[in-house]
Amino acid sequence: MSWQALVNKVSSNSHIKERELDDENSRYGPRRLTVELTNICNLRCGYCLRDEDALYHSPAQLFPAELLSRVLGGARESMQIEQVMFTGGEVTIHPGFGKIIETVAAHGLTCSFVTNGWHFERVWPTVLKHRATVSHVAFSLDGATREAHDHWRGEGSFKRVVQALSRCWANDFPFLLKVGIRRDTVQDLERIAVFAARMGAAALSFAHLMPTSNDIASALALTLEERAEAEREIALLARIFKMRIGIDVGYYNTELTSPCSALSGVSANVDYRGQLSLCCNLSGFRGGNGEDDIITDLNHEEFGAAFARLQSVAAMQGQRRIKALTDLATEGSQADLTTGSPCLFCLNTLGKTPWDSLVRITPLTSNATTQPVLS
Amino acid sequence: MSVKADESAIAPPVPFEHVIFTDLDGLEGVLVDLNTKKYYQLNETASLIWRGLEKRLSVNHIASELSENYDVTMDRAVSSIRNALGDFAAHKLVTQGKP
Q: Is the ipTM of this complex over 0.95?
């Protein structure tokens, strides 16, 4: 069952009329490009999906405004993007943050960015100055209390996030909160929703853990049944709260229609090195060694030609997923987590989780198939 | 010694740990009570007083700052501080400090 079908079911049970989602924009959001502004981060969250060497042991790479301008021009023309989403690493570390936002503005686009909030005070004047360009800010949160959040992000992190929220609230600046669904957060979903609503968040976005190792998966990831229960709970919260609540990453969805913006060609990712790739959740994945999701280096190739190949890769990956699902359906088997969650399917079949022995990785070609191997 | 001077010498209340202050622009500020999840917007005077409480300054010391910054008499400053402390206490944002 897709996330939307689940929300529908919950709403029908609670006799609330469901809003129809009848166009691409409603289903996948606006056409957008995600850009990683840097590889480095000032925090060390143990569950982070980004490669550790890139985050902490490599020289800082900072996305140049000049390259951004060229990429945005190409993406506007060939992909008709309306928005840019900045991620990292930690976005607010980029010393040219102001120039980056000005570049977005110069192309007539809007942008948003995700941040841990630690250095938000530093970029706040820029955000305020360009509030016509910056549509909102997304803050990562690991719980509704100082103890829960600082456990992952270090002492003082929760205070800094709350101070960042306070700035936004005092200036009526839209923000949303992004929270991971893990063993330590799954019991607090409602409490987190209340916290987000009380703090004035415009939206609350949940994301299932994207496991980067057996240890992380064992310690933090939910089973298929536990995830289903969490998704039902979040669907119910989405109906109860006026604030928009949803799951952006990792939801279970076995419908054969395109399950996400990346595979639909509505979104794409450019990493901190300037490489065009399928999805920000796959990019630089910790422990991964597959690169079939990487299309080209935009330092040396124009966006237009590269985007055509990106669409081809997205289409092939989509077909791969459909085949895996229909094969299971033909056998009369329910899709397991790795096949039923589009995000985990992509992680596995694109070589991002070599430690996961359930799926044998095959090259992504026109004849690519996924052969499940029981360990 | 006058009663007012005695009161000013008493240690002021202490902000609760669950109340987080954000300095907006060096002047105004915002408080968040993490227990009630409520925001409180502070004007310049209230922010200055709150910053003084966080530093554990005496009422006299805070009043001196107020008096210098806003060209008011010490009596007026102490009166403003008393009003603010009353407001803070009424909203359970501060605990009574030890003398």
A: no
